[in-house]
Amino acid sequence: MDLNNASAIVTGGASGIGAAVARQLSDKGATVVVADLNAEKGEALAKEIGGMFVSVDVTKTDQVQAAVDAAREAGPLRVLVNSAGIGSAARTIGRDGTIDSAHDLDIWKKVIEINLVGSFDAIRRAATVMSQNDPSDTGEKGAIVSMASVAAFDGQIGQSAYSASKGGIVGMTLPIARDLSAAGIRVNAVAPGLIDTPIYGEGEASEKFKANLGQNVLFPKRLGEASELASMVIELITNPYMNGEVVRVDGGIRMPPK
């Protein structure tokens, strides 16, 4: 898919994996809407890449629509990348065996609402606009990539909410690709492994922690870089024969129980 003069939306695009994707989409000629809650980082990135920032909480459907509208005004909307997400860590039952110490249900629901429901809302809205595009030379009108995780397959202790949300991304990728095939829109997902993002912090202690984590990777024995994951996202967007697929980008890691 040729992205010159097209627009793209990246949710969670202000930092980490989303920012790396936004930069590479810009390099391909797209005008990128950075949809994020972090205005400081989002506006700085949008200025850097010649895109635009829209403040978006993906659980607020009107804000998702605002990002879609902004992208449509910037050029034909041909790309959506769902990168907004949060994690949580809590066991299903508490150590003391009381109901009060069981996993907080509101936290569990929040992870699902952001990671899974928010992604689907962005898909249904962006795809509706994409379906109105003129087809490209390859017959395409748009491409969508959502961020799953190896936790969808190798969820660790305490990851029930996160793994469920990412498992939902995996599970809905093929049926949505089938739904949207008649509209000329491809749908894929990537499942990152251990990726070096700001979530791990900075400084000597952080670097030591990341180095230890990297020893669990098959090869190369390090955390992945956001740019390496972003390059797979770009491949899924630009390769016209990639559809309905979930691709692990993880250095061969299979996560242990904890």
From TrEMBL:
Keywords: Oxidoreductase. GO terms for molecular function: oxidoreductase activity. It holds the Pfam family adh_short. PROSITE patterns: ADH_SHORT. Belongs to the short-chain dehydrogenases/reductases (SDR) family. This is 3-hydroxyacyl-CoA dehydrogenase type-2. It comes from Dietzia timorensis.
